[in-house]
Amino acid sequence: MDVGVIGGSGYGGAELLRLLEQHPAFKVRVVAAGRSAGHVLGGVFPQLLGTSVADLQLAETTPETFAGCQVIFSATPHGVSLDLLPDLVTDGRTVVDLSGAFRLPADVFADWYEHEHTAPHLTPAVYGMPELTREDLPDARLVAGPGCYPTAALLALAPLAGLLGDGPIAVHGMSGSSGAGRKVRDDLHASHAHANVAAYGAPKHRHTPEIAAQLSRAGGGPNPLVFVPHLVPMARGMVVTVNAPMAAPVAGVDVHEMFALYYRDEPFITVLEPGTWPASTYVVGGNAAHIGVAVDERAGVVVASCALDNLIKGAAGQAIQAANVATRTAETAGLPIAGMYP
C-alpha cells in the first residue's frame, strides 16, 4: 500500500518514517512538511541516511500531494489537521491523525483546546488504541491516534474499570522533552531542562477529557479525574502512575491476575511480576508498554504504573499499529517490541 506522511520534519513524523522503513506492506511514497518543504529528508534527519526515504524531497502540504496514497499519517498540530484532513478522508483510504483534532466531540474539543472545530461531522473519529478499540478499527476511514499520556493512563486503568469506587482518580505523568515537539521554547532549553523536574498543565490539561471519555467507554464510572503531567530531564520515554479507588476491598494478587488476564493476548503489553515496577529505560525504542500494579490496602486504592516510549507506543508506533488493524494487515507488522538498552 502506498503511504503518505504529513509532518515529516517533526519528531513524530521522523519516527513514522523510521518504522515504516521496515514495514512489509506499507511503502512511503510522499512526505510533506511545513517549514522544511523543499529540503531532502536525509538532510533534515541524518538518522534516515541510507534508508529508502533519505533522498525524498519534502513536499508542500496540500491535498493534491497525496493523490494515490491509500494510507496517510498526519503528525501535525491540531490546527493543521483540521484544515487539511477533511479533504483527505475519502472512501478506500485510511487517514491516521496523531493530533488531538478528532479525538473528542467537536464541542468538547472547542472547550478544552480553545479552538473552533471546523469539521464536527468527523468527530469523534475511531480511537486508534487497538487494546481498547480493536473491533472499531477495521476499514476505518479516519483514525484519531491517542495522546501519549492517555495511552499510558488508559493502559493502567482499563482493567480496573468495573471495580472503581467513588472518589477521584489521580493520574501523575512524567515525560521527556520530545513530547513537546521540535519547536523552540524557553523551558526546553538545555540550561533550563537539565536536572529539572516541573509540573505543568494542571488542572485543565487537554488530555484530561480524552482519558475520562475512553475510560468511560471501557466501563469505568463517572469518577472525577485529576491529571498532572511533569516534564523530566530526558529526551524520550514516559511513566504514568494512577491511583484508583476501589468499590470493595481487593487483594493485590487478585488485581495482578486481573491485569495479566486482561492483557494476556496483547502483543505489545507486558504485565510485570508482582513487586516489580516499570522503568522508561526498558521501553524506549519499542512499541511496548510495561505495567506494574499493586494494592494499597491502607488507602483503599490500586496503584498502577505504565511505562512506554512517548514517540512510539505513544505516537508513531501506535499509529502504525492502528493502521495495520484498519487495513486488515497483521497488527504487529513493522513494529519492534524490544526496547534499546542501555
What is the topology?
Elements: E1 2-6, H1 11-20, E2 27-32, H2 41-44, E3 71-74, H3 78-84, E4 94-97, H4 106-113, E5 126-127, H5 130-133, E6 142-144, H6 148-157, E7 169-175, H7 190-193, E8 198-199, H8 207-217, E9 225-231, E10 238-245, H9 252-262, E11 269-271, E12 289-296, E13 301-308, H10 312-326
Helix pairs in contact: 1-10, 6-8
Brief digest:
The protein has helices spanning 11-20, 41-44, 78-84, 106-113, 130-133, 148-157, 190-193, 207-217, 252-262, 312-326; strands at residues 2-6, 27-32, 71-74, 94-97, 126-127, 142-144, 169-175, 198-199, 225-231, 238-245, 269-271, 289-296, 301-308. The protein is of the alpha/beta class.
Question: Which properties best describe this structure?
Answer:
Dihydrodipicolinate Reductase, domain 2; 342 residues; single chain; Rossmann fold; 2 domains; 7-stranded mixed sheet; 6-stranded parallel sheet; alpha/beta
